[in-house]
């Protein structure tokens, strides 16, 4: 590689040796040779810092490195003025939820060292740090007013924490010339000399958020030495799982030749270091200059609207099972995506990657692979490549020949180019190849905007002051986890249509249905809980809605963000959310960063002491929900960063080692997301886990986009099997498992995805996992924890790009005679990787096992009680009488 005219100075440098995944960093490579094991909170920490005295808003001089508290600065931003009314009702007395860093002494003048003050703001109150594992009790929102905050050691973000900057004037976190540590913001501390161990289990790093910041690395040295550890400058160490997000952040990094205090002129700076985890969602990020914009590794992840300007390498991929990159702009970077690394279990490297609706401008070496493999499953669609230096689009690192290229100086729009296992015909046994696919998915105009998939970021209502917001607490509602708030909430919502209604952090008990009128705008903080409780929700045979969004037939606007839908006790009949509203325009009815949690948390009455794993019989008090969310027939909506979790473990018990085995649960929720919408509806970065019958089920749906969806099968199955403990048939097309018999002990398990009688369904990235068989994992070695994950029937226009699975014999199991896809044909290191599965793209409406008007699963019964599947392709399959 040589320097090219018009490109940033210098050439890409390899990432440092410690920036690897958790499989490869425990043998001498882990960045655990430093001396800090937590935040610097005063000048008396191991690393002394010189911090000047300042005055508070009243003019009083205070040494803000100690435990003094300053007066809060005035702000015109509503959250800054109202956030302190939130609480963590199950935390110890005196615990503070809302923390303004200036109250802890941060100055924000760009000169004073604010490290200790900000870390005190985060850590105040004996929060969940090393040895804690996780918590549902000790959450916090840390607010950063406008200003420039100089830091000399990392700001440690504890578990269950939101960092929020002022969206009107985002604050700057600025690294000093003598900075010492892994990153300006660190979400998972490497314990010194602990062979790679960290504070938290990376795949259980839930409930985190960072938004509205400028991260400034421009004054940091190239080589940062702490103890025996040498780091490179880094903005955020982001090692997270579900219910996490980064939004509206700019990373400013040094330009080669302008590096401070360095003997090298080539910058080593990295914007984000994410070595592992199970994310997650990031959006609206900009990376300027530096060596690597994003050093990326995770089981799965969604990244939307990222811009890389003059980074030497935009994205350096460590490993993944699947990652969707949407609306990515790469300007004047030598490399867009370097996928030539190996990491993850079994040295998988980059498992799969979808790059859609993106633009590479003057990128000479766009997507680098390693000659000889393993190769990622790639899907490139609506990717514009142009600019004077663009040439190699997909190539083997170090090789002059390309798999896909553009003539230098010309432009090329790549539509439907794929690499990996593909299955395109109803009789296709599959092949492993690369090149353009035909036919390429044809998105309906309803899902697109200006030829790209429509997307809209979470609203933050930045221009509003506190006087513009309706605070439910001021109307008498309680957020302390007591009483019944249903009636008061309904009264407030009905009288506040069109206004922003704020639910400060806390727990809002409801013993009836919350009715959300069309026109509502509702926002919480740190995932304010709406919790179903009481006899109204107990009857599984008579399900009741907890949170109804619109009434059937309604159309208009609704905006929900930063909420959590939860239950308390034996609420077997609870439907947590029913979505009825039809959006009047794209994105006018939406849900952002809202999550579902059934069990595993304080006061849920569904914790380890109530519902421990291994029960020989189903405990009725642990049957806790019928359905997480129903997107009804007449509705449509935009759903971004949504996690539906029926708890597999208790969040509030210490873990043993690096697993949650000792805290696992038997909690039962019947169904995940039932989607009947006629569209257009978008699901960006959604996950649904551990529900008994299915995670996602689409019935009669149309014009649906599912981007990097993720599922897990309940750990307890097949004990009991999916046919227990819920009554089958209470919701449309409940599966009945007619194909299973008593010899198949892994057959009656929850589907990850069912697509029935639906059209124009676009799945771009799907990670579907079955990790357990009755809480054991021996089945992983033979990929036999479960028989099948995906079922389709009488559906057409089904386009699945980058499907990756674990633990199931069958990857895709269409009814009607189409050949299944098997894991042993598509295994790539740890997971299966299918780049293209489109046999139902241009056909399928008359192929399946579903017979409209008859029983579910598309079966009818003859006089001998045998199950008959209609097979228009080959023959009729007749299964013996089902034995339950």
UniProtKB/TrEMBL annotation:
Pfam families in the record: Pect-lyase_RHGA_epim
InterPro entries per the UniProt record, alphabetical: Pectin_lyas_fold, Pectin_lyase_fold/virulence, QRT3-like, RHGA/B-epi-like_pectate_lyase
Region of interest: Disordered: 1-32
One MF term in the entry's GO annotations: lyase activity
Gene3D superfamilies recorded: Single-stranded right-handed beta-helix, Pectin lyase-like
Superkingdom as given in the UniProt entry: Eukaryota
UniProt domain Rhamnogalacturonase A/B/Epimerase-like pectate lyase: residue ranges: 98-337, 470-534
Sorted UniProt keywords: Lyase
Protein name: Pectin lyase-like protein
């Amino acid at each position: 590689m040589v320097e090219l005219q018009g490109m940033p100075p210098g050439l890409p440098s390899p990432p440092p040796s410690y920036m690897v995944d958790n499989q490869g960093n425990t043998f001498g490579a882990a960045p655990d040779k430093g001396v800090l094991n937590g935040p610097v909170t005063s000048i008396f920490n191991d690393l002394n810092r010189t911090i000047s005295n300042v005055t508070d808003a009243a003019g009083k001089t205070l040494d803000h490195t100690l435990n003094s508290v300053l007066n809060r600065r005035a702000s015109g931003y509503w959250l800054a003025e109202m956030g302190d009314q939130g609480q963590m009702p199950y935390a110890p007395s005196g615990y503070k939820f809302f923390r303004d860093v200036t109250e802890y002494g941060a100055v924000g003048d760009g000169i004073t060292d604010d490290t200790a003050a900000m870390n005190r703001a985060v850590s105040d109150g004996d929060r969940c740090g090393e040895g804690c594992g996780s918590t549902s009790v000790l959450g916090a929102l840390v607010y950063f007013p406008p200003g420039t905050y100089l830091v000399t050691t990392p700001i440690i973000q504890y578990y269950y924490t939101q960092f929020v900057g002022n969206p009107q004037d985002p604050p700057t976190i600025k690294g000093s010339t003598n900075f010492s540590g892994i990153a300006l913001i660190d979400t998972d501390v490497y314990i010194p000399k602990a062979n790679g161990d960290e504070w938290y289990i990376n795949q259980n790093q839930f409930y985190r958020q960072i938004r509205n910041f400028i991260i400034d690395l421009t004054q940091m040295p190239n080589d940062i030495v702490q103890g025996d550890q040498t780091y490179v400058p880094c903005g955020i160490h982001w090692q997270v799982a579900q219910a996490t997000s980064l939004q509206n952040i700019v990373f400013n990094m040094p330009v080669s030749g302008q590096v401070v205090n360095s003997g090298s002129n080539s910058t080593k700076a990295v914007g984000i270091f994410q070595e592992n985890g199970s994310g997650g969602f990031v959006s609206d990020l900009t990376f300027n200059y530096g060596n690597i914009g994003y050093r990326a590794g995770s089981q799965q992840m969604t990244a939307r609207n990222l811009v890389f300007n003059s980074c030497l390498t935009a994205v350096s991929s460590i490993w993944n099972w699947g990652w969707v990159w949407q609306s990515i702009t790469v300007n004047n970077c030598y490399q867009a995506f370097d996928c030539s690394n190996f990491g993850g279990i079994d040295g998988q490297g980059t498992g799969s990657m979808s790059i859609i609706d993106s633009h590479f401008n003057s990128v000479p070496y766009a997507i680098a692979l390693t000659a000889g493999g393993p190769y990622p499953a790639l899907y490139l669609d609506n990717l514009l490549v142009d600019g004077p230096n663009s040439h190699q689009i997909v190539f083997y690192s170090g090789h002059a020949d390309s798999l896909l290229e553009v003539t230098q100086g010309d432009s090329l729009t790549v539509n439907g180019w794929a690499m990996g296992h593909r299955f395109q015909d109803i009789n296709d046994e599959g092949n492993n190849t690369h090149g353009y696919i035909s036919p390429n998915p044809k998105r309906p105009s309803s899902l697109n905007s200006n030829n790209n998939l429509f997307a809209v970021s979470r609203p933050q209502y930045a221009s509003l002051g506190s006087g513009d917001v309706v605070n439910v607490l001021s109307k008498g509602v309680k957020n302390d986890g007591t009483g019944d708030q249903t009636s008061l909430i309904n009264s407030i919502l009905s009288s506040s249509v069109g206004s922003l209604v704020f639910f400060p952090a806390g727990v809002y008990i409801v013993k009836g249905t919350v009715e959300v009128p069309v026109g509502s705008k509702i926002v919480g903080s740190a995932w304010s809980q709406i919790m179903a409780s009481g006899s109204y929700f107990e009857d599984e045979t008579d399900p009741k809605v907890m949170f109804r969004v619109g009434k059937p037939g309604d159309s208009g606007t609704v905006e929900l963000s930063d909420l959590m839908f939860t239950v308390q006790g034996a609420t077997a009949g609870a439907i947590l959310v029913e979505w009825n509203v039809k959006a009047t325009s794209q994105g006018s009815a939406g849900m952002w960063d809202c999550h579902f949690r059934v069990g595993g948390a304080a006061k849920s009455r569904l914790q380890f002491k109530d519902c421990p794993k291994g029960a020989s019989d189903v405990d009725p008090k642990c049957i806790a929900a019928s359905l997480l969310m129903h997107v009804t027939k007449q509705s449509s909506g935009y759903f971004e960063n949504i996690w539906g979790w029926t708890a597999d473990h208790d969040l509030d018990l210490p873990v043993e080692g690096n697993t949650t085995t000792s805290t696992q649960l038997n909690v039962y929720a019947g169904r995940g997301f039932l989607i009947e919408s006629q569209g257009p509806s978008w699901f960006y970065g959604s996950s649904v886990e551990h529900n008994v019958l299915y995670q996602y089920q689409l019935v009669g749906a149309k014009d649906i986009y599912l981007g990097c969806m993720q599922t897990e099968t309940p750990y307890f199955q097949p004990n009991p099997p999916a046919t227990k403990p819920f009554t089958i048939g209470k919701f449309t097309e409940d599966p009945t498992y007619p194909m299973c018999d008593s010899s198949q002990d892994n057959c009656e398990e929850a589907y990850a995805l069912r697509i029935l009688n639906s059209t124009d369904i676009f799945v771009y990235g799907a990670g579907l996992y079955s990790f357990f068989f009755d809480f054991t994992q021996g089945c992983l070695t033979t990929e036999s924890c479960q028989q099948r994950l995906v079922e389709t029937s009488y559906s057409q226009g089904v386009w699945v790009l980058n499907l990756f699975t674990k633990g199931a014999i069958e990857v895709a199991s269409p009814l009607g005679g189409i050949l299944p896809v098997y894991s042993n044909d598509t295994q790539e290191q740890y997971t299966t990787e299918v780049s293209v599965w489109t046999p139902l793209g241009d056909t399928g409406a008359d192929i399946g096992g579903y017979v409209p008007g008859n029983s579910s699963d598309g079966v009818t019964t003859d006089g001998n009680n045998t199950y008959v599947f209609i097979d228009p392709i080959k023959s009729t399959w007749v299964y013996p009488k089902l034995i339950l």
